[in-house]
């Protein structure tokens, strides 16, 4: 591919193809997205949504070449929320966005070594069987308590404090006595007199 001994720069099509591959590979390493797809949080078409997601990022960066990490991160968070109903607060979207923006710069320069390395690692994971991200949702029964302690621990602490109860005869009441509700006054014409709170 050298013309007169000079290496030709990669074609725009090759650059775009490598960049698209890098987006897909980057998204495949994102635990939040992998978990959403494995558990079908985006519905039965979760895998298709992931593939669409990669294409949407590519389209976004073609339409907005000056997009920075923050812009891409906001897009990632919005799609995760809209398509998979996930609100991320772990800053993983920022890491993925930074990686995508960095790969965009490298591929535009014709440097595909990082993309090729990512692809080789992905193929290796596929041959040895990828380790799936697992999520376990535990539901508690009505009789189960949502506490971190055991009732036996509380009983032991009470025994340590002392066996006798403290007499609380003089303790102030915790609830104020309710004022008696004033009976409505009805005049001779049958109208009820309205009394303000201050006049009670």
Architecture overview:
The chain is mainly alpha-helical. The chain contains seven helices and four strands, in the order E-E-H-H-H-H-H-H-H-E-E. It has helices spanning 12-28, 31-38, 46-63, 69-84, 92-108, 113-128, 151-161; strands at residues 2-3, 6-7, 185-186, 192-193. The chain has a two-stranded antiparallel ribbon. The protein has a two-stranded antiparallel sheet with strand order 3-4. Strand 1 (2-3) and strand 2 (6-7) form a beta hairpin. The N and C termini lie far apart (98 Å).
Count of helical regions: 7
Helix content: 40-55%
Estimate the strand proportion.
Answer: under 5%
Mean pLDDT: 78
Q: Rough shape?
A: elongated
* Secondary-structure element string: EEHHHHHHHEE
Unreliable residue runs: 133-155, 174-178
CA-to-CA gap between the ends?
98 Å
Number of strands: 4
C-alpha Rg, in Å?
33 Å
- As laid out across the biggest beta sheet, the strand order is 1-2
Q: Structural class given helices, strands, pairing?
A: mainly alpha
Largest beta sheet, briefly? 2 strands, antiparallel
